[in-house]
Amino acid sequence: MAPQGGKIARMFAVAAEWQAGDWFLSRNAAWAQPFIEQIITFPAGRHDDMADTMSQAAAWLLQANVSTVEIYNAFTGRPFD
């Protein structure tokens, strides 16, 4: 899938997902700190390739027909909210 729109437009499109907590980022990952730096300094940061890749992946996931994963409580059998 070819990138749609510009980098800034793509980042605005996924900003609400990050603000809502829909994405998980392991802060222990070796790449986490540079990734966070790129996101918080975007678009004025020196580097933006990780932030841009994330926004393209998010756009792809929104358009793809991907199954949702549900997590259930092993004791009650009820889904977690």
Compact description:
This protein is mostly helical and 81 residues long. It has a domain at 7-19 and 31-63.
Task: Record keyword descriptors for this entry.
single chain; mainly alpha; 81 residues
Give an overview of the whole structure.
It contains 3 helices and no strands. It is mainly α. The chain has a domain at 7-19 and 31-63. It is globular, with a radius of gyration of 15 Å.
Could you give the topology of this structure?
Layout: H1 7-19, H2 32-41, H3 49-63
What does the average pLDDT come to?
85
Main beta sheet, described? Answer: none
Helix content: 40-55%
Whole-Å distance between the termini? Answer: 32 Å
Low-confidence sequence ranges: none
CA radius of gyration is 15 Å
Secondary-structure element pattern, one letter each: HHH
Number of helices: 3
Shape: globular
Strand content: under 5%
> What structural class do the secondary elements suggest?
mainly alpha
**How many individual β-strands?**
0
